[in-house]
Write a structure and sequence with these properties.
This protein has 336 residues and is an alpha/beta fold. It has eleven helices and 13 strands. α1 packs across α8.
Length: 336
């Protein structure tokens, strides 16, 4: 298939593009290469993809309405996977307009492109952050998620609502994927594993929020990619049993689905740090801090729907995933 992957120079987009190319798909990778984090890391990911036959890179911004419309006019896509977004809960407190531009304006441009080009299936990244103030565990796609606690989460919830509207009005099959704390080689430098690894190797203290009592459903990137690929191949169906009297948030009479992709085994942050210390062979200096605004104390994914519909659920042990990340980090940065 010919597949558009937005955010292709990003962490998940890079791994997904590589997996799609490996199975023989043609990938058009879009990215604006912004400087939210070190651009060289994005360029190095991109360089690997550009050495692979079947990959074409397009430098563009999702918020560029004319540019995105032109892209859909130039290519006929069998699938679109929208991973491009302004990420990060904490950064949304500092620069809210970046989230509106990328996650709302950008997403409507993708929806319009898919609508007019009659793309058979749009898959897009949502986030575990949409669960917000919910406390019922594990988080289920059948729970209402109407109380986000960060602007980032609100934009991801808005993406799900916008996608449903297009599924309802235009019959566009759409699937949203709520990712749970993704980590692994080539990861994002603003994420905990990257920040902790860099600080420990440089002999600097690490910031441990919520006194280390945070619990996260850490999910290895290869598991995320496997889930995305399987969902992309399965065009979102309508749910004939859906009822407006008891509306199921995970489906619709329209061709619309939402899934969690998480390791469904939450781990306390202090245990996460212990494993990292073991793999690095060094102890961390810890600075304990209160929970930051916009964060939630715990995430925990119910993946029963994903397992039922595509026959897969993430299962990579944290010890294995962190070991692979540390090996990549040492090779890429060659720290002393």
């Amino acid at each position: 298939m010919r597949i558009l992957v937005t955010g292709a120079a990003g962490f998940i987009g890079f791994h997904l593009s590589r997996a799609l190319l490996a199975r023989g798909d043609t990938v058009v990778g879009l990215d604006n290469l912004n400087d939210y984090y070190e651009v060289q890391l994005k360029l190095d990911r991109l360089a690997q993809l550009e050495r692979t036959p079947g990959f074409t890179f397009v430098k563009a911004d999702l918020a560029d309405r004319a540019g995105i419309a032109a892209l859909f006019g130039q290519h006929r896509f069998d699938r679109v996977v929208n991973l491009a977004a302004q990420a990060g809960v904490r950064y949304s407190l500092q620069n809210p307009h970046a989230y509106v531009d990328a996650n709302l304006v950008g997403f409507i441009n993708i929806l319009e492109g898919c609508r007019h080009a009659k793309v058979p299936h749009l898959v897009y990244a949502s986030s575990s952050s949409v669960y917000g103030a919910n406390t019922a565990m594990p988080f289920s796609v059948h729970h209402n998620v109407d109380h986000p606690v960060s602007l980032y989460a609100a934009t991801k919830k808005a993406n799900e609502l916008m996608a449903h509207t297009y599924a309802h009005l235009y019959g566009l099959p759409v699937t949203g994927l709520r990712f749970f704390t993704v980590y692994g080689p080539w990861g994002r430098p603003d994420m905990a594993l990257f920040l902790f690894t860099r600080a420990i190797l440089e002999g600097r203290p690490i910031q441990v929020f919520n006194e280390g009592k945070m619990r996260r459903d850490f999910t290895y990137v290869d598991d995320i990619v496997e889930g995305v690929v399987r969902v992309t191949d399965r065009i979102a169906p309508a749910n004939p049993d859906w009822s407006g009297d008891r509306p199921d948030p995970a489906s619709s009479r329209a061709p619309y689905r939402v899934y969690n992709i998480g390791n469904h085994q939450p781990v306390e942050l202090l245990r996460f740090i212990e494993i990292l210390e073991e793999k690095l062979g060094r102890k961390a200096q810890k600075t304990f801090l209160p929970m930051q605004a916009g964060d939630v104390p715990a995430t925990y994914a119910d993946v029963d729907d994903l397992r039922r519909d595509v026959g897969f659920a993430p299962a990579t042990p944290l010890e294995t995933g962190i070991e692979r990340f540390v090996a990549w980090y040492r090779e890429y940065y060659r720290p002393i």
